[in-house]
Amino acid sequence: MMALIEDFISLFFPRVCNACEAPLMHNEEIICTSCLFHLPKTNFHRDQDNPVSSLFWGRVDIHAAAACYYFRKGSKIQHLMHQFKYKGHKEVGVFIGGLYGDELKKSPYFNTVNAVIPVPLHRKKIRKRGFNQSEQFAMGLSQTMKIDLVTSVLVRKTASETQTKKTKFKRWENVKEIFDIEQAETLEGKHLLLVDDVITTGSTIEACATVLHQIPGVKVSVAGMAFTTF
What we know:
Helix content: 25-40%
Order of helices and strands: HHHEHHEHHEEHEEHE
Distance between the termini: 50 Å
Shape: globular
Mean pLDDT: 89
Strand order of the largest sheet: 1-7-6-2-3
Structural class: alpha/beta
Largest sheet: 5 strands, parallel
Number of strands: 7
Radius of gyration: 18 Å
């Protein structure tokens, strides 16, 4: 009976893959099986010296850094991220976070993480978009890695301009002094996983990590949903 009801509903509200828009089968959720198999995974979590971690060499102390997928213009990943970020499909972030959390907890570089911290959005941006996309990704990571999700320590003091068309230097200038920490004592001595949706130049992560390193004894690692390749 439930299958018949779902089939009827799907006539008016079809369930489609957020990456390729193909109809989802009864046993599929969010992303179809074909896309899950073919989406371009980086596997950076298996190698401590990788293109994401190299972004931060000489800039800020990062224990380990990785991203789940490669991001390329015109790709299924770009479509997936567009559905997530601009079409309000919050479940995409939680779903990918859950998948990637299963991978990270098996990695010797990430299996000692105590807490996951999303890059914060300013309240004006949250009101406009309705949610913080990095926090949705962090929720999925937190659930499968069985670690705390912390959203109250790292705060964004001011809203920043969009980073999309800025150079690497301009991106850093845009974010270098807009983050702060509160209740820092709750994270002393912990291994923190700082997460963002798409990592490009690393400027936002660098600014956040620099502030987090003011907390005594912390170790900071980084994870992203996707890593931009030029």
